[in-house]
Fold this protein.
Amino acid sequence: MTARLSNHAATLDGLRRKARLRGLAPQSGMDFTSNDFLALAGAPRLKAAIVAALDRGVPAGAGGSRLLRGNHPEHEALEAEAAAFFGAERVLYFGSGYAANSALFSTLPRRKDLIVYDELIHASAHEGIASSKATAVSIRHNDATAFDEAIRNWRSNGGRGQPWIAVESLYSMDGDQAPLDELAAIVDRHDGFLVIDEAHATGVFGAGGRGLTAGLEGRENLLALHTCGKALGVSGALLAVPKVFADYLVNRARAFIYSTAPSPLIAAGVREALRMVDDEPERREALAHLVSFVGDRLKNQFGIEPSGSQIQPVIIGDNAHAVRIADALQAQGLDIRAIRPPTVPEGTARLRLSITLNVDLGQIAHMLDCLATIMKENRT
């Protein structure tokens, strides 16, 4: 290796020593890792809809940004249908949740505003917030009182703009829910905006699978992000906002303006996925049954408090220990990964159990039995 590459190689060596080095692995074994919660990604109905879109001439590529020739009728149809589905004035379709969060936070909050965000919010939101001209403050996880106090302190110190509260409705590494009703009341009191990332709740929770913001629909101060690559089984992200914000993003958000538009063919797939969520509530019911089974077993067999959602962390603590347990589970044909810092806080390395309809009760019971045996064998 030449000297010009040595600094990067040294960083990788440091990550390896801390058991934090990442690598790519192929899909293998029973699925306890993906976010394909409703098993829509490979569903025959979704496949048929994409084939039908191809047959009617929908292209795979957009050929340009939305502001040039890339604005396809499938994009506009999806946005109109999604706005009706989520009870929003307007929806914008982005190529990924990362791009949508980056565009939102870097563009909408203004220089005199305050962004108050949960410390466990997704990395994409952090990226957007770092690019914002607004003041930003991190708040203890799910502490509604601390959100309120931060805004009051900012006002008392001369804050003149508007506050923005940013949270996830269902947290991706802990599986717990944000206190949305309390936070909505806080932004109302302070004439602010509530930004809710619904990535892991869309399709699974709320009336009709519309997410945990379903009870807040129609509010002028609500911005909800519904990603399409998890329970919806496709890709991209739907940002549900007031029309004025949608127009502002089209004119000011660099991540929207200067990106090639998402695939029109994938947009057609997302349209069908939303219909499936609406038409097939039995998928949500089946998932809830599996989640309940896992929660009962974890509590009774492991003494682990269930998260109440399809995302269940098993906290190990030490990075190397978590990797050893995950490796042993993978050797048993179970696709379970170790999640380590910086994705989660230091000292909280964990197994992230993701419950999906890609497995059944028997496979889940087998996984939990293997987990019990392997954790016993790998005690520190």
